[in-house]
Each structure stands twice: as structure tokens, then as C-alpha cells.
Amino acid sequence: MSKSILVTGGTKGIGKAIVLEFASKGFDIFTCSRHENELLGLKKEVESRYSGCSVHVMRADLSLKEETKAFAAFVKAKTLPDVLVNNTGIFIPGAIHTEPEQNFEKTMYTNLFSTYYITRAFTEAFIKRKNGHIFTIGSIAGLTAYANGGSYAISKWAMLGFTKCLRQELLPYGIKVTSVLPGATYTASWEGVDLPEERFMKPEDVATSVWAAYNLSPRSVVEEIVIRPQLGDI
């Protein structure tokens, strides 16, 4: 029976790179996006590149609690994934004291609340099975405060705290929990920035790190992965 991975927001950037990495290793894929056309394009691409790999997609806006829970139910009806990657996120630049209030709410619901609800949907079954690996895709913005980070940085600090707590709760049950904290990665979030592509990390490097952390023996876990561009933060 094939192993499976759930990656939220798997149609672009780091999420897509993780999907392709695990698909190349024979995993079935479960993912979501707000855009149906991107999901269908991903399904066609992955299944044509990796024979035997099955891609299951659902359009869902994970800034909405109801749609987040609906996506979790969609996956649970088909499988209990071996790997869960909480990747969905948005970045809206702004300062805490001047950004529109709705930026904070939308960012927290998308980045943090979706992680909370998706994770809770599977932890009981993971505990019963005594196996599973949960990754949260955070950011170095969750380690280092910076101006104009606003709600995004707050959400990533909170995600790191969430992941640390989850690690302590689940370690007795053989369930691994890993926080991934990438620096500037060449994704859609950086579109329009006047910097050469070579200054950024590749999404594939993050995906390779996730795969490597997953492949440790049951006796070890990588708790945090911090990856930065070779020339430092941007």
C-alpha cells in the first residue's frame, strides 16, 4: 500500500516542491488550493511525471474554518496520511500600528488557525496508530523581528510556539513534529522585488530538507530546520 502525504497549499512555491519531492518517492498526494485550475494542473503534471502516483485535490480557502474542516474531512474519508505538512500561508507586508485590522485577522486565520484545525483533525488517529510526521512551514520571521513584518511575523512566531507545544504533547506516541523555518525563498511572495533570483533559496532545497528529516530512524527527530540564503537574510 502506498504511503501518502497531505500538503496544504501545494500548487506553488515550497508546497509544490514538497509535493514533487514526495511524489518522486512514490507517495500519493493530497492537497488543496483556492484555485481549481491550479489544482487540476498540478494533478495532471504529477500523475504524468510519476506513474503510479495518485493526486487527490480539493478547492478550499483555508482562511475559512468551515472550508479547512471540509478539506480535512475530504482527506480522512480516503486515507490517514503518513506525513502532514501545514504549508498554507499568506504574506501581507505592513506595520502593526498602521496596517488595516483585517490584515491581522486574515493572516492569523490563514497561517495559524488553518494549521491548528488541520492538525487537530488527524492527531487522534496518529496517536492511535502511534506513527506520523507533522511539519509546519514557518519562517525565520518567527525567529527574528523585523520592521514591516507586522501580522505575518506575529503568525510565524505563534506557529513556532504551536509546533513546540505539539512536539511535547505527541512525543510519547511515536509521532514526530518538525518546524521548518526558511529564509527568503524564491516564490510568488517575492514577485516584483528588484533582486536577482540567485539571491534567494530554491524551494527544492526546502523540500529536500523536509524529505531528509522524514527519513530519520524512529529513534530520532529533527525538531527545527532553519535554512537561510548563503549570503544571509534579505
Describe this structure in words.
It comes from Negadavirga shengliensis. The protein has 234 residues and is α/β, with parallel strands linked by helices. The chain has a single domain (4-227), classed as 3-Layer(aba) Sandwich (Rossmann fold). Helices cover 42% and strands 15% of the residues. It contains six helices and seven strands. The protein has a seven-stranded parallel beta sheet with strand order 3-2-1-4-5-6-7, with helices on both faces. Strand 5, helix 5 and strand 6 form a beta-alpha-beta unit. Helix 3 packs parallel to helix 4 and helix 4 (101-129) runs parallel beside helix 5 (150-170).
What keyword list fits this structure?
Rossmann fold, 234 residues, alpha/beta, 7-stranded parallel beta sheet
* Overall structural domain count: 1
**SS summary, helix count:** 6
What radius of gyration results from the CA coordinates?
17 Å
Order of helices and strands: EHEHEHEHEHEHE
Structural class estimated from helices and strands: alpha/beta
Helix content range: 40-55%
Mean pLDDT, to the nearest integer, reads: 95
CATH architecture: 3-Layer(aba) Sandwich
Keywords: Oxidoreductase
Family: Belongs to the short-chain dehydrogenases/reductases (SDR) family.
Protein name: SDR family oxidoreductase
EC number: 1.-.-.-
